[in-house]
Design brief:
26% helix; alpha+beta; elongated; GTP Cyclohydrolase I, domain 2; 4-stranded antiparallel β-sheet
Amino acid sequence: MKLDRVEVRDLLLRCIIGINPEERVNPQDVLINLTLFADISRAGHSDDIADAINYKTATKRVIALVEQSKFFLVEKMATEIAHLILSEFDVERIVVRLEKPGALRFARSVGVEIERTRADFDLPPLSAHA
């Protein structure tokens, strides 16, 4: 099956993230990029939001998760974002890029990029949902 991409770029949020004492009390910026891999051909034919991945709803769920989180590691936050999207939306695979702008002196940002599938979280394949 050929998968299409839905992309959310440069979602800038503030949250508690980090291992240092000041990072545990002062919210920091995080920059999130998401690439959702799914078959969106049905929405392309029907022009009906019910057939699409509602990226507004998906983004709101990510915002709620991140803004209320208190993770120590960007790796954990990225993994939780991937799990959220894969478990709540008809997405086969996701790439999450998460950066902390200004976290490292002399660097624009520091971050991670992960790629996960439904199988990584023991979620059933989408074909089983039909």
